[in-house]
Amino acid sequence: MSLKSFAAKIFANYIKRQTQSWASKPVETQQKVFQQLIQQAKNTSFGKDHSFDKIQSTQDFAQQVPIRDYEELRPYVNQVVEGKADILWPGKPLYFAKTSGTTSGAKYIPLTKESMPTHINGARNAILNYIAETGKADFVDGKMIFLQGSPKLDSKNGIQLGRLSGIVAHFVPSYLQKNRLPSWDTNCIEDWEDKVEAIIEETLAENMTVISGIPSWVQMYFEKIYQKTGKKVGEVFPEFDLFIYGGVNFEPYRAKFENLIGRKVPSIELFPASEGFFAYQDKQDEKGMLLRLNSGIFYEFIKADDFFSENPQRLTIGEVETNVNYVMVISTNAGLWAYNLGDTVMFTSTKPYRVIVSGRIKHFTSAFGEHVIAKEVEAAMSEATKEFNFQIAEFTVAPQINPKEGLPYHEWFIEFEKEPESLTKLSAFLDRRLQEQNSYYKDLIEGNILKPLVISTVKKEGFQQYMKSIGKLGGQNKIPRLANDRKIADELEKLQQ
Question: Does the model's pTM come out above 0.85?
Fold first, then answer.
């Protein structure tokens, strides 16, 4: 055991004790965070507009601060972007995480001196927790790769901005810098395909032990390694012993990854976003990620089924239940208040509080009132890959409301790496599993409102071509699992021609 791995184990056990301390007092921890947030922001423009000085409880907060998404919060954010101080949070932010907007251009998510460390510590603690749980620390002596956005930053009214993953690159601890790949210059390459090629050149000869990134883009990296060497990734990197991922459900990719690697590799799931680092997998043998209740974020939860009603009930951490689909609403030390992130979560445990990301409140298929969510289609696909022994690269689901003939249906666009023997049997299996999970969908099938789902195969690298065509290949970009329209579906169909 090296000195570095020995020190990592000691630090890991210290962080584990810290984590257990706040995780064992969830309500108390959240109340403390809430009070600190209100107190610190009461003299900001937002705090004055919403009478923070009169807020004594979470109930007061719910009455005085309405739920807003980015577009609704934009008037305040715009003032921050213009360089004004004390708008959403005291002073000015350190950075803006710039992300692609949905309706009216780019989104600028503030990162403050108080919030920035929570992003860094979230990823760090996830790894340290893994070390404390498993006793494995040898990987810290090898090379680590983090597939991320460019660390090049622009400036707007004196505040630097860029992709979150690129900003975080500026905060990598010095003790990790020597082990970390790719190089700064390679990370700055904007074209994703060129970047992956450069990363391969830099990493092939190295002792890679940790690989991290969004699964679809790590898969691309693995595939190109195989094309270049003719060897499985696990053979090229015999010491590769930890995969860290976030952003999407890994299960649909698992079989393909294990095939590309040639063996199983332990993994850690993260729940990061520009708005905050919310959770990480704290147990290898339990489902769900530990919700970070002490990281400058106050959480509220609204049942997804009630979210679009006039006055939905806003629940705090002590009021949630397992196996209920909630919209997660956050207030943070970056100045986001009662902010609808758009993500839906389900609690897998309340002792401690663990979540899975079940989907997006805006990413669902409900063209016929069925409200199918990502968790349902991903669970169906995960079971199917095991049942029929096939592998996928990517998939998405869209409604077909106006078919040329017959009843409407859900259309599953699937890019196969290894096709099943029978698409007919696969589509029947997927449909059956979806009906078992979603009674509304089952009723529509049984009532002859919909016919069973239809699979449309997507040519190899078809999803990559689509992402490239919209300028979103690589980085933190990912395919929505579900859509309520045919925008993506129509483009995929064009690319097949």
Answer: no
